[in-house]
Amino acid sequence: MTSAPPVAAAASERSTPAEVGGSRARRAGSGLGPGSPRRRGRSSNGLRRLEPYAFISPTAILMIVLMLVPIGMVIGYSFMNNVITNHNPKFVGLDNYVDVLTDERFHTALGNTLIFTLTSVGAHLVLGLVFAMLLNTPLLSNASKAVFRTIYFLPWLFTVAIVAVLWRLLLNPNGVINYVLVTLGLSDNGVEFLADPSLALAAVTFINIWAGYPFFMISLLAGLQGIPRDLYEAATVDGASRWQQFWNVTIPQLRPIIISMCLLDLIWTSQQFALIWMTTGGGPINVTEMLSTFTYKLAFSRYEFSMASTSAVIVLLLSMILAVFYVRHQRARD
Amino acid sequence: MTTTAPRATAASAAAKPSRRKADSFAATEQAGSPVRRRIEKVGVIIALCLGAVFAGFPVLWMLSSSFKSNPEIFASPPSFITKGFSFDAYVTILTDPEKIRFFINSYAVSLAVTFATLIVAILAAYAFSRYEFPFKKPLNVVIVSVQAVPPITLLIPYFGLMVTLGLYNTYAGLILTYMVFTLPYAIIMMTGYFNTLPKELDEAAKVDGSSSFGALWRILVPISIPGIVSVGIYTFMIAWNEYLFALTLTRTNDMRTVPIGIQLLMGQHSYEWNEMMAMSILGSIPVLLLFLFFQRFFIGGLTAGSVKS
Amino acid sequence: MSNVARFRRVVATGIAAVAAVSMIAGCSSGAPADSNGKVTIELAQWWEPELPKGEFQALIDEFEKENPNITVKLLSGPYASTKEQLFAGSAAGTMSDVVGLDGAWVSDFAKQGSLADLTQLFKDNKYDDSKLASQVQLDGSTYMIPVVNFVYPMFSNDDLLAKAGVTAPPTNRTEFAEAAKKVSALGGDTSGWVLPLSSEAPNGIQNDVMSWVWASGGSMLKKGKPDLTNKDVTSAVEYIKGMWDDGSIAPGSFTQKEQDKVEEFTNGRVGLMIDSLAHINLIRQNNPDLKFSISALPAVDGYEGERGIPYASWGIGVSESSKHKTEAFKLVEFLMSKKINSQLSTMAKAFPGNTESEPDFSDADPLFKEAFDIYKAGKPANEFVGLPVSEDLMRQFDEQFQKTLSGDQSVKAGLEAAQKSWSAEF
């Protein structure tokens, strides 16, 4: 963080003579990668137009071969009657979509996923922001902040399977959390966090919050360092209280990060599978059934790959809406 | 909140108040009296400690469990400092060549994924940041939304594809697969990062005779190191912790990674709880070291990358 | 600029590390092709990690010694993911030649056409199948042979039962419910019975719920079709619901798995459980002081007939896409042979799939011998084996059962709902 500005400064210094060399006109027309009239002829101008494609070609090849092809296959499956298990699947049009969209379990799963995802992302954001603000305090020495920063970073280190198993241990009716609750007299016989149908969804959401907030915290912490101090000084001069400064300076400055992270987190959380599968398996009854567990059960417990694919395509379409909003938001900022 | 308070030592805080008071009321609020500052500091410390319990306790419990015997992990009432403290679980793991192999595989794959993702993402991000070209927006939508397809449904077609391409049970297969999963994030972040850098920088270099690639490599990349490092660490963590594809795309244990090693300890009839915990602690150490080592890059990097994305 | 320098150094180190590691990796990756007429077959299973290290490999080494022209490659995976891996493999046509199977999956894999018809292989290889304790068939053809069987008798914690004033392990439902109630009444964190009903691994429905039906000679099927509303199933479900309402069942039931059940028992927190014999050693090793005994699962009061004992198997099948079916079958034959099957069942703490084999009880826990007698006196019963989507059937039943237990619906309504959703699968 401290060393980037000098480097940038050095680089721009280096570039100054060149600017004098008359590249300003070019910049005005930037957008469509302009060719240099001095050094390149018409043919290389055409080449230059191909340049961006050269730059994205590795990505494009990888994504097309390894992502779009399988996704295309999944979309194809969704229009067939039972693929994989059936050797001669037939085209059935939108039948699968009708089946899935009218399935009551799908509605339950969709509702639970919404609750789970929105709560998780909201809590990730709030916790991430609070922790980032706390860790950004000027009141503590850098060393103690580094210690806290490391502790706060810990939940991010573990593979989901372990997070699930660990929390099962902690939340076990005879586990340590219940032991503390009973000892403190907060509960008589302990609480069945994961097995009680009225608590299970809250419990898995809590676990997911624990596992995911560091992503926000680290990024927001970084964002806070990037806010120019003079903005606060100006606000202070205007007589803004610290609460007002938070709302009028901090939040607007962090907005782009917050939006990007929320988008990524919404997409990632909505397909959280292993955590739910390994803590509750979608139960008790169906209170933690998510789109991901619903899809999994269709595929690997009922072997209905067409239906599973259909459900996947629906999820894809939902997130495409999100993606379009995101890209539009980006365009506005370009 | 506290962010706005000047970074002052107690001494300078004591020296400044008079001037600040004269300036504005708000300034008084911020610098505060020494007493107020002390109260505030205590408050912040209390809040930080509470947060640390929330964040750290489960991990501490994991650490403590890794030193316990299997039955003690389930003992009621639970014990924190273990009666039968032992390193057995660690010894078992570290003396098992198969498990060591899992660690080596995880390093190899994660490092390779990280470097390859960074190179490919930097190239793509450069195009997205510096050029306007047809299909740029739709490409962006695709890159963002492909992340949304539940991996579990991709499993079967993907598996078939890897077998067809001859990449099944190879490092290359795993590395390419993870790249597909990490690239979208990396490209989004790197594009944002490059967008914060003035176009004059690279265009000036081009006038000096550099190709576009040269401008990217010699000018943009060195300035963007913090961003690159932050994206790199995140990429590393995704690759390090992935389970589903790591299992499906490999068939022999000599190709498998740490998360599978952990899962192998969860048997049909019983779990090796302490070994699972120990393996997961051991697995997290490299990532933690990376974080500590890169901390300053990491935090600086995300700033520039995301603020103006 | 120090950052740039450091960054370069990091990049260089990273590249060097990757290069070094891939060299190591490159050296040790095996060579599959063999020119001198040797055949390599793969055996995919989850057994090897379950057994003491090296023991299963030793059996395979023996096979290779007997069959010098066959090399066997052991592919082991975690149990919880075995099914997905097999399924992906069969969809891509890369299923291993010989595969470990669970009875619950057979029907689906067979229907998909990925398992070879073993009856045909018996004929082709002139194999005498009369020694096989059981075969899992679909439309008259065998697709899986249970290699070893894990029976699920009743375990009782002698100390807890004695403390609650119960002197002998319960033999019928009334005694069992009484005992469970008394143990729960001891207070603290003790409970009478532990009932794992996790929807992730719903086999509790098979081992801990339906077992009550089978133990009293009942059935959940009628002519191969679901028959969940009959009086046997109803009485078993009502019986369990009664214990639930008495508070005799350990907390956390709805998310517990088999692995949790055994931890609760090992730590002396539950008086009774129905569990796999495979756990005897684990319990002994983890809690040497625990006094427990095993007995047949209680039946309805006054029942005199043969008792069904639930079991789970490590089954074996041959892949339809295998290019070396003869060699693959040789391996199956080897594992089912009298001597090897005895050895395997000894190391797995299970009962042999070959009727002539007998596990070696000399070093084993005395309880094993006892369990073997119970096993021989009763008949193995597991109606889920060979049913279509049987894991999903358990899960459907589980959901209705959980609703019933939590009082959202009556026993009758729950069974009717389960019956309805099961009927749709047949």
Automatic annotation (TrEMBL), chain A:
Membrane-crossing residue ranges in chain numbering: 53-80, 114-135, 147-170, 199-222, 263-285, 305-327
Alphabetic keyword roster: Cell membrane, Membrane, Transmembrane, Transmembrane helix, Transport
Origin superkingdom: Bacteria
InterPro entries: MetI-like, MetI-like_sf
SUPFAM superfamilies: MetI-like
Subcellular location field: Cell membrane
A biological-process GO annotation: transmembrane transport
Presence of the UniProt keyword Transmembrane in the record: yes
PROSITE patterns, sorted: ABC_TM1
Annotated ranges, domain ABC transmembrane type-1: 110-326
Membrane topology: Multi-pass membrane protein
GO cellular component terms, semicolon-separated: plasma membrane
Region (Disordered): 1-45
Family: Belongs to the binding-protein-dependent transport system permease family.
Protein's UniProt name: Sugar ABC transporter permease
Organism: Schumannella soli
UniProtKB/TrEMBL annotation, chain B:
InterPro entries (alphabetical): BP-dep_ABC_trans_perm (IPR050901), MetI-like (IPR000515), MetI-like_sf (IPR035906)
Record-linked SUPFAM superfamilies: MetI-like
Alphabetically ordered keywords of this record: Cell membrane, Membrane, Transmembrane, Transmembrane helix, Transport
Localization per record: Cell membrane
Residue spans crossing the bilayer: 42-63, 107-127, 139-159, 171-194, 215-240, 276-294
This protein's record includes keyword Transmembrane: yes
GO biological process, alphabetically ordered: transmembrane transport
Membrane topology qualifier: Multi-pass membrane protein
Record field: compositional bias (Low complexity): 1-16
Pfam family, one: BPD_transp_1
Family (UniProt): Belongs to the binding-protein-dependent transport system permease family.
Protein name per UniProt: Carbohydrate ABC transporter permease
Automatic annotation (TrEMBL), chain C:
The keyword Cell inner membrane is assigned to this record: no
Protein name: Sugar ABC transporter substrate-binding protein
SUPFAM superfamilies: Periplasmic binding protein-like II (SSF53850)
UniProt entry tagged with the keyword Signal: yes
Keywords attached to this entry: Signal
Leader peptide range in chain numbering: 1-33
Species this chain originates from: Schumannella soli
Highest taxon listed in the record's lineage: Bacteria
InterPro entries noted in UniProt: Bact_solute-bd_prot1 (IPR050490), SBP (IPR006059)
